[in-house]
Structures are given as C-alpha cells and as structure tokens.
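Entry 12.
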Amino acid sequence: MRRLLRAVVSVGAMVFAVTLAGCGSISPAPGDSPDPGQVETVAVQRADLDSVYVASGQVVAAAVVVVRAPEAGRVAVSAGVKAGARVAQGDQLLSVAGKPVVARVGGVVESVLVGDGDQVAVGLPVVALRLQRFAILATVPAADAYRVYTLPSEGTAEVTGGPGGLQCPVFAPHSPEQGEPGQLAVLCVLDAEAAVVEGLPARVGIKTGSADGVLALPVSAVQGDVQRGVVTKVENGVLSRIEVGLGITDGIRVEITSGLAEGDQVVAFAPGLG
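Predicted 3D structure (tokens):
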C-alpha cells in the first residue's frame, strides 16, 4: 500500500455537499427492519485516493521564497553563495550534514540565513531566494491549515482567464503576508514562459495525501469530522448506526480505516441528515 502522506482529512468540511445529498431522504432509525427496496445502499469498496486541497490566491512578481534544511546537521555554505549572487536551477547552495541542498528554481540570493558551520534543525530556513519569474501566492485559512501540515514540493496551478493544469514547485514565502493568525501561505512558482500578469486571481491544488487499495465509501454516506464518523449499516435487513474511522478523501470518496469490512452495505446517505 502506497502512503505518500498519512494525512487525516475532515469530512466535516464537506457537510454542505453531504447535506444536499441527504435532502428529501428519510433517515431510517437504528433497529428498523425496512423493506430492502425502500432503502438505497452502497457497498464498502477498495479504491485509490488522492487528497488535494485547493487554495485561492493571485499571481505575484519577484516573490522571495525560502529554501529549508532537508535534515538536521552542520551547514557548509557553497563558495560564491551570498546576497546578490545569481543561481540557476540545480546549483548547489550549501550542504547540510554533508548532503547538498540545491536550488529548485533559479533566482537571486536575497540572503543566506545561516552561517557556515552552524548546526540547524530539519526544516529551518537556510536561504532566501528572489524569483525572476511569476508565482502564485495562495493562502490556506487557519481552520484548514492542519490539512497541509507538511508542505509538498509540487502543486498544480490554474490562473483565472489564463492557463490551467500548470505543474509548479511549491515553496514557503520568506515574508508571508500578514492576515488571519495561523494561516499558511504558499508560493507556487510558474514556468518562465507562463502567459500571466501580476494580480490575476488563481488557485493552487496542493496534494495532501495519497493511498492505494483502501476501503472507501462515498462522502454522502458518512457523517463525521476529522478522524471519526458515523454510518448506517444494513445487515440482515436491520439498520444500525456504527462509528467508523476516517482517513483521506478526494472529495467524492472517503477512506474508512476501521469499523467496516469490504463488501459491507450502508445506507447511501449520511445518518441524521435526512
């Protein structure tokens, strides 16, 4: 089983969509033995899921991104890497614990944030790099920031009225715009040939998790929040509400981590939403 990131995603964030799915339905009571033809059911099935969070933002120019230490250790700054130095994609900026840290995009060194020989922790900003191309600055509200607690290296960008489906490296900005406490700012760096202008509204899709061959149900069948949920199980003609463990979601299906087995039947709409 593939696990790129075992992120836990809130089904509660999709309550609006689930509520719509349940409108006009009659929620069976636990213990009922309804006519099987009167209850729509779905089966727990295995699926491959990719969880993506979409953040809104706008196109910016000459942004400054942060390069972080990929691991803990002692820093050795590469010769010539200093404020004002131009670096190309792939150039080595420094090494940490003997392992090279290279520029994922070209730009101009704004500042070296650590000294030669310093001991740094994993994830610590080590170099600030000013871009020479456009990027999308997007923000994740504080309420959703837990979904992106590990910043991925790549994203997918879409510019309103412009190009879409653009693969782009993702960075943290050196000086995030001030806003809601706890919000997360991300920069998705566009290709130098991208036909955009500063200020255009845009969106960035950030992959927050991936899992293959996991048990899953449609989100419309589950009521829940973060790691736990409730479904109405149908077994031998009897309905019972049971608690289930929840994992990642792609917005259509949600991973079931506990409480149900493959092939189990549940009512197709979430309990309590009819």
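Annotation: Confidence is low (pLDDT under 50) at residues 1-27. The two ends are 36 Å apart (CA to CA).
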